Amino acid sequence: MNMKHVYFIGIGGTAMASVASALSRGGIRVTGSDERLYPPMSEYLREAGIPVHEGFDAAHLEPAPDMVVIGNAISRGNPEVEHVLNERLSYCSLPELVGKELIHGNKSVVVTGTHGKTSTAALTAWMLENAGRSPGWLIGGIPKNLGHGCRPASGGIFVTEGDEYDTAFFDKRSKFMHYQPDIVVINGIEYDHADIFPDLEAILLSFRRFLSIIPSRGLLLVRANDHNAGIVTADTLCAKETFGLAGENPDWEAVILEIDANRTRFGVKKNGTNVAAFDVPLFGKHNVLNALAAVTVGITLGLSTAEIQEGLATFQGVKRRMDVVTESDGITLVDDFAHHPTAIRATIEALRTRYPARRVWALFEPRSNTTTRKIFQFDIIQALRNADCVVIGRVHRPERYPPEERLSPAEVAKELKAAGKEAWHIADPGEMVDHVASRIRSGDIVVLMSNGNFGGAVAVLAERIRETNAIRIDINDPAKN
Question: Mean pLDDT throughout 339-362?
Answer without folding.
Answer: 90
